[in-house]
Amino acid sequence: MTATLRLLGKASSINVRKVLWTCAELGRDVAREDWGSGFRPLDTAEFEAINPHRLVPVIQLPDGSYLRESNTICRYLAAGSALLPGDPLARARVEQWMDWQATELNAAWRLPFMALVRRDPAFVDAPGLNDGIAGWHAQMALLDRQLAQTGAYVAGPDFSLADIVLGLSANRWRMTPMPHPDLPALAAWEARLVQRPGHRAHAANGIP
Questions:
Q1: Is residue 117 helix, strand or coil?
Q2: What residues does the GST C-terminal domain cover (predicted)?
Q3: Which of 27, 55, 111, 198 could make an SS bond with 132 (beta carbons 3.0 to 4.6 A apart)?
Q4: Considering only CA atoms, which of 3, 36, 31, 1 is closest in space to residue 19?
Q5: What's the CA gap between 141 and 57, in Å, rounded?
Q6: Quick one: angle between helices 88-100 and 161-175, nearest 10?
Q7: Are residues 100 and 30 in the same domain?
């Protein structure tokens, strides 16, 4: 019997929700603790001993040590399951989209999201907001083209970890108050994802 997973991080964090959705797909029990803004602080010696980068999520491993970085945690949890193929090339096709999410796509949404959702004063009137929105749309259009090619899920015909991390990113894009271009393959994929209980609980839950 698999032990209950100790997960540190508030449920509104997009990166914590990656782990929660992954655990939902795997049927893994989770004991989540609220850490982060509004809850237990991350800028303390106690938390820095757990994660020197002072970010969530973090999970505690069976040996008592900790693992950080949301995509890494999801890979660790999904190892040996259908979410992360055992074949090296099939796995690499999943992971290349996970890495794209963590780099190019995350960089694209930062300015628009901070300005339009968080309403951070440092970003609201920042020059280049319109360019930032256009750049975010361009990245989502790239994902739309990939989904049009596969006709199903991000890395191919089967649901995988790539769909979890990018499904949350797509939810953030969709919920940000701005005009959205028509991306039909992306919209069809989102309709497939919402059929999954993990998506409904942790992505289509009213939180961008």
A1: coil
A2: 87-208
A3: 111
A4: 31
A5: 29
A6: 20
A7: no
